[in-house]
Amino acid sequence: MLQLVEISLSQGVEDMIAVTGATGQLGKLIVEQLLEKVPADQIVAVVRDPQKAQALAEKGVQVRQAGYSQPESLAAAFNGVEKVLLVSSSEVGHRVPQHQAVTDAARAAGVKLLAYTSILNADTSTLLLAKEHQPTEAYIRASGVPFTFLRNGWYTENHTGSLAAAVEHGAVLGAAKDGRFATATRADYAAAAVAVLTGKGHVNKVYELGGDEPYTLSELAAEVARQTNKPVIYKDLPQEEYAKALAGFGLPEGLANAIADADAGASRGELFTSSHDLSRLIGRATTPLQESVAAALSR
Q: How confident is the model at residue 14 (pLDDT cuts 50, 70, 90)?
């Protein structure tokens, strides 16, 4: 039976770092990489279901139960914490009040830094996915809490996760035309978050995060074809048709529409950045597309 760490025992521990959504795809990677940098008892994994964090607890990480929609639980979860990483909620349509609750709890706890995983080019983005990040950023700025905005670009896994089907059908589908995606892996973005949480000089900074080597979906298809020695092309669809195709593959309608909208945004340059903020933060080049494709095809 998992035993939650008593919050009272952590009083006085210095430099405690809390990560929300710590059992999610990104949050888990962030905690794992933090463990390479700081003692486990200085890491607080904020989770909705503590049972899913048992492996972290066994490593000595403090596991605290809290939900984005439970403000009272957040106040307790941030007790004694110096830095908070707010991993954006996955509940599209409900994220603004949830993020505001986390911000309020962080302010009440007197944290010295609130880092937030936002979206690339958030201040100018017209993507559907940006509509909840923009008011969140504004709320955090107005709160007075020292912040860092980690404006994450598209995940490479958003493309490589469906490569088996692309190989089977001989086509990568999309609605991005020849737009370039500056993608990076979740592990790359996790490393950037860890660099901010464990480093200095990041207060009130905004980082536009993306991969070093942007690519088009035609280039993605060509790389898949090269590695598999099979014919794979890029088939560009109208946005509405692509959304219907994604829904036909089993994606919820809202998510299908958001992905198709993101592809359309990519055709306008909204998922591209030449900032190299990501590679500078992590101190290495971002994961090459060839490596990500190879890893996906080997599974």
A: low
Q: Which of 161, 125, 89 is nearest to 273 (CA)?
A: 125
d(CA 282, CA 266): 25
Residue 250 corresponds to which tokens in the numbers above?
């089993």
CA max distance for the chain: 61
Using alpha carbons, select from 29, 8, 30, 3 the residue that is nearest to residue 18: 30
Q: Which domains are present in the chain? A: 15-152 (3.40.50.720), 153-184+209-274+283-299 (3.90.25.10)
* 143-165 pLDDT tens trace: 999 999 999 999 999 999 999 99
Average pLDDT, the chain: 94
Q: What's the 3-state SS for 161-213?
A: CCHHHHHHHCEEEECCCCCCECCECHHHHHHHHHHHHHCCCCCCEEEEECCCC
Query: What SS3 state is found at 86?
Result: strand
pLDDT at 5 over 70: no
Check whether 137 has a pLDDT greater than 90.
Answer: yes
Distance CA 252, CA 243 (A): 10
Token pair for 174: 């999309």
pTM of the model: 0.94
How far is it, in rounded angstroms, from Cα 293 to Cα 157? 9
Residues 6+ apart with CB under 8 A from 203: 113, 146, 147, 148
